[in-house]
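User: Teach me something about this protein's shape.
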Amino acid sequence: MKLMASPESRFLTCQERNIHFMEWGDSSRDTVVIWHGVTGTCEDHRELAARLSDTYHVICPDSLCCGLSDWAKEDRDTSLGFYADVAEDLFRQLGKSSLRWIGSSKGGGLGIVLAARDNGLEISHLVLNDVGVGLDENFRKALAKGLSSPPVFDRFQEFAGKVRNFLSKMGLELTEQKWHDLIRSYARRTDDGRFTYHYDPRLAVQFAEHPEDFDLWNYYDQVAAKTILIRGAHSIVPDEEARMMAERGPKCSLLDRTGGHVSLMDKLVEQDVILEFLKN
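Assistant: First, the predicted structure itself:
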């Protein structure tokens, strides 16, 4: 039995890509995966992972192109299909065939794809943190443009102000220490010593070249996992789409939370709902 009171940072080579992940808790217990959003890192949901690790074995990967994982080698690397190939390889190497899944934004879309694929991987519970089966085309175009040319700053404080201002507008509310920790995890130095976002700008390719990632009904209708959709007060999931998700496929339950699209799932009320949901 392997017991981890604090998280362990690990790397595995999956689909010829180096993938970094944090591992929490007793590895002999049932496993929960927390997969972050399009530009997040494995640090995003640290508080939720720590709380879940009292009961579960918790795995929090850095997506390909994010954090300490490899950047893209090919355009396909940013698609949900290749993300799913990488994830399946990761869990095979870890000897995991049954999972509970918590996915924020793109991480939730990945959970939908994995739960529907015939891959020998059973996802029994699926938590979708403000992600549906589609995405508005204008929003996709704006994301593609923004991700392809991340801003660069001379000073870390300027970078920090930009990140905080943007995420605050997206509805994120954090303590000063949490802001500092999050922003530090999102920063990297450029070759000339300035500061920018940690992620690979080729993440933009998904929004421009992989429209199949934004029409997931064929996958969603095949999902058998117990599913819940948690929507922010200012959600990217339209009301009609949420209603249809509650009627089709796994017939997800719906929960509204405060804030916007981005959530670290660090509020106790939200964590309590997730813990209760995962129990069954």
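Now, about its shape. Strands lie at 8-14, 17-24, 31-35, 57-61, 98-104, 122-129, 187-189, 195-197, 226-231, 253-256. The first strand starts at residue 8 and ends at 14. If you'd like, I can walk through any region in more detail.
User: That's plenty for now, thanks!
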